[in-house]
Write a structure and sequence with these properties.
Low-confidence stretches: 208-218, 233-238
Strand content: under 5%
Number of domains: 2
Oligomer: single chain
Distance between the termini: 8 Å
Radius of gyration: 24 Å
Amino acid sequence: MNNIFSYHRFLLMLRKDAADLRAQFIKILLISFGIGLVIFFLTNYSAGISGGKEFEIVRFVIVVLVVVCNMLFAPFILYKRFNHRTIGVSNFMLPASQLEKWLSMFFYCLMVTPLLSIAALTLADLCLLPFYPLAGTSLWFLSDITAHSSVHIPSTHIFLYMLVYQALFFFCNIWFQNSKVQKTFGVLIIVSVAGALFSGMLSGLFPMSDVSGLLKIVGNAEDAQIATTMISGIYGTSGTWPIISLFLTVFTFLGIWYAGFLKWKEQEL
């Protein structure tokens, strides 16, 4: 089938996937709800006994971790067998283009799954709200730590890095046909080692980025300050480099998604 997009076929594809994935969605909801129910209660109960205020931080971290983990592993949970040699044949025989099938998978993994996780965790928090020992406890998204997290945490960069890993998991689910989780973790180890080696190489190539190293080289603080200003102007440590890093991160996950789509098209019958 030609790679043509039709809104009508795409909506039909979304409806079919929603019906087929109902059991997996219920599983995600129940697991997220159970994790929130148990950990929220135990953490708040411990904080109530000790008189501490760590509960809001722990609760926020748990919400973020559960949502991120569900989003990362959503391709394996929802579409693990889509390219199976026998089970996956029915998927490729559907009267929809590869683009429409890929966008449907993208929609449910990247958008629906995180929303379901947040809804389940919020429901668990709401059910426990009357029983929290700490006085004045509110829902997790109304707490002070959530309101000020955007100030203290570079949320944009964290979100973009999360998209990079999600794109990698997405790609591995499309590329591999069996033992997907194990092979994906193998790819993560290789990527992590390569990234560490690359960072070490950059540190070796540009040792003068450290002011203490400059002091040893130039001999006095005034000259070191001049050299630091020159390096900042060249590498843009104050403004240019973060922008370059931002664009590189965006291009990375967009490139991985596109590579996954190209691999998806290769599997068309």
